[in-house]
Write a structure and sequence with these properties.
This protein has 328 residues and is α+β, with helices and mostly antiparallel strands. The protein has two domains: 48 residues, Uridine Diphospho-n-acetylenolpyruvylglucosamine Reductase, domain 2, CATH 3.30.43; 273 residues, Uridine Diphospho-n-acetylenolpyruvylglucosamine Reductase, domain 3 (2-Layer Sandwich). Helices cover 30% and strands 20% of the residues. The strands form three sheets. A five-stranded antiparallel β-sheet has the order 4-5-8-6-7. A three-stranded parallel β-sheet has the order 1-3-2, covered by helices on one side. It is globular and about 60 Å long.
Length: 328
């Protein structure tokens, strides 16, 4: 690693001002960024520490919403009493996402910005990676692609978003609060992450020097009937082959509202509102869940090493809905 400058911001405005210097990055927990720096994927000249600017609080908002500060640690968020009781889906996802040591360091804002673990991106020995070197090609399309996308990919990129937390936030209709040189704005989670298109180097819609300040969760509807199901090669904190965040609002065995988000299958958490709508007003059973799964996976395309993901995702959706609906 080359030498870098390190500056500690005193407040959000100061952090935004400092990060506008050339080749500068924010750093919170650093669990992803430091890995990327070690591999020369990221080469910032300076880092701006945002751990001491008041963004680590979790607070209840008027009307029953919850605001999670961007610098809140994943462990603190997963174990917060209001998260555990009102948003167990988020707690489940966070606890499945990494070892305790990593969760104690990783932040909510950093998790939102987590970059793909595609080996062609992570290893600079591979020349072809449009996400790392735009215009160089996508080595994964013809290479080893077992962990890669089956939905929403493009000719330029078939990488997937690696975060478990992001999948749960997508199902919970979270809103990302950001601040930058042009002021503050609110970004629905469905609009925050991007599909790769022809510019896979852009993972999100964040503008230069914008800082994530918090994530807001709506008043809870899905505390009783929610399940985060993660299918992986090993249970010891591996990345998801397929994950499902299933959240149901039910009364007397009938679904009033449903939210389903998929992870491990696309460049962003994957939702199809039509699949959720078809469950509303109906009793929950495996046959209906399978039809919802078919809608969610419409257009799915496998590659030589990951075609199994389509069937795996179908079964995981049905199982997650069954387990969410079966909770007392």
């Amino acid at each position: 690693m080359r030498s870098i400058d390190f500056e500690q911001a005193a407040d959000p405005a100061g952090a935004i001002r400092l990060v506008q210097q050339p080749d500068t990055k924010f750093i919170g927990g650093g669990t992803n960024l430091i890995d990327l720096m070690k591999g020369d994927v990221e080469q910032p000249a300076r880092l701006v520490d945002i751990n001491h600017i008041g963004l680590d609080r979790i607070t209840e908002l008027p009307g029953g919403s919850l605001r999670i500060g961007a610098a809140a640690r994943n462990s603190d968020t997963a174990n917060h009493p209001l998260v555990r009781t009102r948003y167990p889906l988020l707690s489940e996802a966070l606890l499945s996402g990494a070892s305790p040591q990593l969760r104690n360091m990783a932040t909510v804002g950093g998790n939102l910005l987590q970059r793909t673990r595609c080996p062609y991106f992570m290893d600079t020995a591979f020349a072809m990676c449009n996400k790392r070197a735009p215009g160089s090609g996508c080595g994964a399309r013809e290479g080893y692609n077992r962990m890669h996308a089956i939905l929403g990919m493009s000719d330029a990129c078939i990488a997937v978003n690696p975060s478990d937390m992001n999948v749960a936030l997508a199902a919970l209709d979270a809103v990302v609060q950001v601040s930058g040189p042009q002021g503050a704005r609110s970004i629905p989670i469905a609009e925050f992450h991007r599909l790769p298109g022809s510019t896979p180097q852009r993972d999100t819609v964040l503008l230069p020097a914008e800082l994530i300040t918090s994530v807001d969760l709506q008043p809870p509807l899905f505390a009783r009937h929610a399940r985060y199901l993660k299918v992986r090669d090993r249970s010891s904190y591996a990345f998801a082959l397929v994950s499902v965040a299933a959240a149901l609002d039910m009364s007397g065995g009938v679904v009033r509202q449903a939210r389903i988000a998929l992870g491990g299958v696309a460049h962003k958490p994957w939702r199809v509102p039509a699949a959720e709508s078809m469950l509303a007003g109906q009793p929950l059973d495996d046959a209906r869940s399978a039809r919802a799964a078919a809608l969610l996976l419409e257009g799915a395309q496998g590659f030589k090493d990951n075609r199994f993901k389509i069937k795996l995702a179908q079964r995981a959706i049905v199982r997650a809905l069954r387990e969410a609906g079966g909770k007392a």
